[in-house]
Design brief:
- The structure is a single chain.
- By secondary structure, the protein is mainly alpha-helical.
- The protein has one domain: Arc Repressor Mutant, subunit A.
- About 50% of the residues lie in helices and about 10% in strands.
- The protein has 4 helices and 2 strands.
- It has a two-stranded antiparallel sheet with strand order 1-2.
- Helix 1 crosses helix 2.
- It starts with 10 loop residues before the first helix and ends with a helix.
Length: about 70
């Protein structure tokens, strides 16, 4: 089953996305590269020079990353 909202995120992208759940989240330097790719996927936007989850990003967080689910199985 393929859906446009299904994302195969790398672990670093997943961690950066999870970190943005908290208000005033601090993103570490290694996560900056992951942030750029999340912006390209439309999961994160930059608002006033701070990363913010988009609606699409919130949905991805709720659904989880299929590659991480496969690794846990």
């Amino acid at each position: 089953m393929s859906d446009e909202n299904d994302f195969d995120l790398r672990p670093d992208q997943w961690e950066a996305l999870k970190a943005l759940r908290a208000p005033f989240a601090k993103i570490t330097a290694p996560a900056r590269f992951a942030l750029d790719s999340l912006v390209a996927l439309g999961l994160v936007s930059i608002d006033d020079r701070a990363p913010v989850l988009t609606e699409k990003g919130r949905k991805a967080l709720v659904r989880g990353s299929f590659s991480l689910l496969d690794a846990a199985a």
